[in-house]
Amino acid sequence: MMNLFDQYQQKQVKDMTVGDRVRNAFKILSLNKRTKKNGDSFLALELMDKTGNIQGKIWEKVETYAPMIQAGEIYRINGSITEFMNKIEIKVESVEPVSEDDREINRADFEETPPFDVEKTFQEMMETLNSSITNPFLVQLIHHFSDRYGDPFKGHYGALKIHHAYAGGLLEHTLSVIKLAISVSDFYGLDKEIMVIGALFHDMGKLLEYTRTPTVEITGEGGLIGHIVLSNQIFLEIKKQIKDFPSDLSLKIQHLIVSHHGEREFGSPEVPKTPEAFALHIIDLLDSKLKIFQDTIQQTDVERLFSEYNRVLGRRIYNPKKEDE
Ligand SMILES: [Fe+2]
Ligand SMILES: [Fe+2]
């Protein structure tokens, strides 16, 4: 007998187009109650399957669904694909919890897995650190870091939104910044060890800035203190365990951490005042912005010669895929 699911094509997020009927399982990442101009409320959802994320809206029975839905859980959603502001979204008609023994649902499909081998990349980062650091205090600093923060560091997001916003993103970004710090310090004759350690710690505060479970969410510390100060805090906490850590060395590293956003209006309490700090700031900017260029091109349809306007970069990005064909 044909079951209800077979009446619908079970398209995944990446293949969905306007007009499709949907009766799929999604993990609900977030749920927000909003108000329409006429005063009625609706629910805005962020949903994911293993192929991507999509927004959803619930216009009816808001009072029934709002208390029922829990962010981080999987639900079967019935609805249709519509378009809003050039993006597809789901007009949700009903939401059903999935049972524990629903054999069509493999929970692992809804766990976000990093897009690369995290263990290997972490090992590469540790090898890169070990081969560039000789100062015995900094060697100890690296050991304490990997003992205390190695595991959470591996799977953490690089950002809430914008760049490296996926599991493993912090690791990927940090390794890039470390490698670039080595090249730039060699080229300009800067203090390589200070730059490498500054690179390792610069965004470490992101471990405290947002949590990963059940969904990625900003923490109280993250919202009230921010990762720049939190990175400095983690550095100080690790440094405390090392006997006689020289205060001038600490000060130089702390300066790299707190000035890495480059300008006070971008959250840094001080602007970079050493060549190493300035170089680290530019490297950080380079890696985060180039990542946005690459992601934007990748997400732009082959048919389009330019991407949508990107708010962070303040421009549309040229999409060479069409001409390459
Ligand atoms: Fe940062
Ligand atoms: Fe960064």
Q: What report would you give on this structure?
A:
With 325 residues, the protein is of the alpha+beta class. The protein has 2 domains: 4-110, OB fold (Dihydrolipoamide Acetyltransferase, E2P) (Beta Barrel), CATH 2.40.50.140; 118-296, Orthogonal Bundle (Hypothetical protein af1432). It is built from 11 helices and 7 strands. A hairpin with a 5-residue loop joins β6 (210-211) and β7 (217-218). α2 packs antiparallel against α3, α2 (118-132) runs parallel beside α4 (169-188) and α8 packs antiparallel against α9 (247-258). The structure holds fe (ii) ion (2 copies). The site of one fe (ii) ion has 5 residues, from loops.
CATH topology of the largest domain: Hypothetical protein af1432
Give a list of the ligands: fe (ii) ion
Measured as a percent range, the helix fraction is 40-55%
**Secondary-structure element pattern, one letter each:** EEEHEEHHHHHEEHHHHH
Quick overview:
The chain has about 325 residues and is α+β, with helices and mostly antiparallel strands.
Fold topology:
Layout: E1 21-35, E2 41-49, E3 52-58, H1 62-68, E4 74-84, E5 87-97, H2 118-132, H3 136-155, H4 169-188, H5 192-201, H6 206-209, E6 210-211, E7 217-218, H7 220-224, H8 227-239, H9 247-258, H10 275-299, H11 321-324
Helix pairs in contact: 2-3, 2-4, 4-5, 4-10, 5-9, 5-10, 8-9
Bound molecules: fe (ii) ion (FE2) (2 copies).
